[in-house]
Automatic annotation (TrEMBL):
The chain crosses the membrane at residues 228-253, 273-292. SUPFAM superfamilies: Nucleotide-diphospho-sugar transferases. The keyword Membrane applies. It comes from the Bacteria. One of its GO terms (cellular component) is plasma membrane. This is Glycosyl transferase family 2. It is a multi-pass membrane protein. Signal peptide: none annotated. Keywords: Glycosyltransferase, Membrane, Transferase, Transmembrane, Transmembrane helix. InterPro entries: Glyco_trans_2-like, Glycosyltransferase_2, Nucleotide-diphossugar_trans.
Amino acid sequence: MNKKLISIVIPCYNEEKSISEMYNRIKNIFKVQLVNYDYEIIFVDDYSSDNTRSEIERVCVIDKRVKAIFNAKNFGFHRNVFSSLQYGNGVATFLLFGDIQDPPEMLPKFVECWESGSKVVVGQRSKSNESKIMSFFRFMYYKIIDWFSDSKQIDLFTGFGLYDQEFINVLKSIEDVQPYFKAVVSEYGMDVEIVKYEQSASQRGKSNFNFWKNYDFAMQGITSSTKLLMRFATFIGALIGLLCLSFAIFVLINKLLHWNTYPAGTASVTIGIFFVGAVQLFFTGILGEYILSINSRVTKKPRVVIEKKINFENRDKID
């Protein structure tokens, strides 16, 4: 009997401590729980600066089921993840990250949901391990997306999940150089089933995602998901312009009626100028984010450039 092939895709960046453990845990899952399925493991390294590649190469020599792709430079989280999902040959692809914060042991549950008919099965963290400040910013980000976007994004979702080949084919048809994967799942995810899980601490002990990376991801998500924010900026600009015009007419009438007694109002004028200037700068920044997003999408650059592939020449089933 031919076994269904499941591709396990693992984007990596500086995960030398996790490679061996992840390989052993996945192998054990298929040996004990998913015995009726075949598998391939694809490590996709985004130009790590530690010994991640050496560890991956070592595992590739041990087991030909394990494959590797090494990027020619660091292309960033979203570009690497989006490209990684397209390398598998399985009827479904399991996306797992190299820091093992998301437990591989969730795969049997995901497969069960997938076999029941769900085209996309995603893991949602039961709680956030972030600071209160970051949790607040995350909460506000999702509120903005909910208010202004046609598709609702999944909170506390990193991409961890099982994706049917039908959905992977949709990904392959998207030519966006700067894809925002979470928005794609929300918009094109077909039958999405959400499974909650507990996330463990990173093997690195420190996240690669600082404030500026999170800000970049948030702006990418907003500009990819909605155009209403630009329309909101236009509306607010028009409203402030109308208020300023009304205030100017009011000041002019009062000055004409009380020519000698009406105060010059230097302070109020100064405050008004700074207020309008701040609003203009804010919305110019929003406009700039959209322009940057459009520019990155129309330049037709490759999403990633591959430096090396390992074990991809072996297409035969391995018992």
